[in-house]
């Protein structure tokens, strides 16, 4: 059982991994870009659906529910669009993320 948690990393640490690993670096970069696109989709979905609900119902509860649902639907749509746009279905993003975590643990424990 691991007793201490992995220290947090910064954007520059991720960029250092991307630059140092020619195999998994580009895959990790694409996966992170897809997450940014999904987050943007979530924001757009939340704001637009809540605005639409508020405009036509003036119900705070309805607008709040629409905000939550729009965020989930927007994230899902954004993630799917990014996956196809960036062709993530061809890449092994999980392995790239595991390789990054292994690299980070080794680096922080002084085994790099």
Explain what the structure shows.
Helices cover 76% and strands 0% of the residues. The chain contains four helices and no strands. Helix 1 packs across helix 2.
Give the key terms:
112 residues; mainly alpha; SDH6; Succinate dehydrogenase subunit 6 protein
Largest sheet: none
Fraction of residues in helix: over 70%
Shape estimate: elongated
Strand content: under 5%
Annotation, overall tally of beta strands: 0
Instruction: Note the total helix count.
Output: 4
Low-pLDDT stretches? none
C-alpha Rg (nearest Å): 19 Å
Euclidean distance between termini CA atoms = 22 Å
Mean pLDDT over all positions: 93
Strand and helix map with partners:
Blueprint: H1 11-20, H2 25-57, H3 60-85, H4 93-108
Helix pairs in contact: 1-2, 2-3, 2-4
Describe the structure concisely for a colleague.
It comes from Thalictrum thalictroides (Rue-anemone). This protein is mostly helical and 112 residues long.
